[in-house]
Amino acid sequence: MLENQSSFHNSLTNKRVFVISFFVTLFWIIGNTADVYHFAITGAFFELLWLPMLALIIFLPAISIVLFVKDKFNLRSLALYSILLLTPTILLLLLN
Predict the structure, then answer these.
(1) Neighbouring residues of 78: CB distance < 8 A, sequence distance ≥ 6
(2) Based on the number of CB atoms within 10 Å of its own CB, is 28 exposed (0-12), middle (13-18) or buried (19 or more)?
(3) What is the CA radius of gyration of the chain?
(4) What is the C-alpha to C-alpha distance for residues 79 and 18, in angstroms, rounded to an integer?
C-alpha cells in the first residue's frame, strides 16, 4: 500500500493546471486589493488580461475536478491543490 502511494507522480497536465491556477489567483487577488490603474501600464495590462482570466477562473475548476477524478482522488494530486487554490479566489470575486 505504501509503495503505491509513494510512486504517484503528477502528470504534466496537472502541473500546468496548477501553475495556471496560481497565476490566475495571483491576478485576481492583486486586481482586487491593489490600485492597478495607478500606473497606465498596469491598468492596460489588467484590462487586456481580465477576460482571459475570467474564462480561466470558470473553466479551471472543472478541468481540475476531471483531473482529480482521473487521479483516483489521490491527495498528492496537484489538481486537488488547484481546486483548493481557486475556491477562495472565486469566493473573493463573488463576495467582493
Answers:
(1) 10, 14, 15, 17, 18
(2) buried
(3) 16
(4) 7
- Cell digits for 23? 497565476
Listed in order, strand segments (DSSP E) in 25-71 are none
Burial 70-87 (b: 16+ CB within 10 A, else e): ebeeeeebbbbbbbebbe
pLDDT at 96 over 90: no
| Ordered DSSP codes for 60-74 | HHHHHHHHHHHTTT-
Locus of grid cell 490600485: 35
pTM tops 0.70, yes or no: yes
Contacts of 14 (CB under 8 A, 6+ apart): 67, 71, 77, 78, 79, 82
Closest Cα partner for 23 from 91, 82, 96? 82
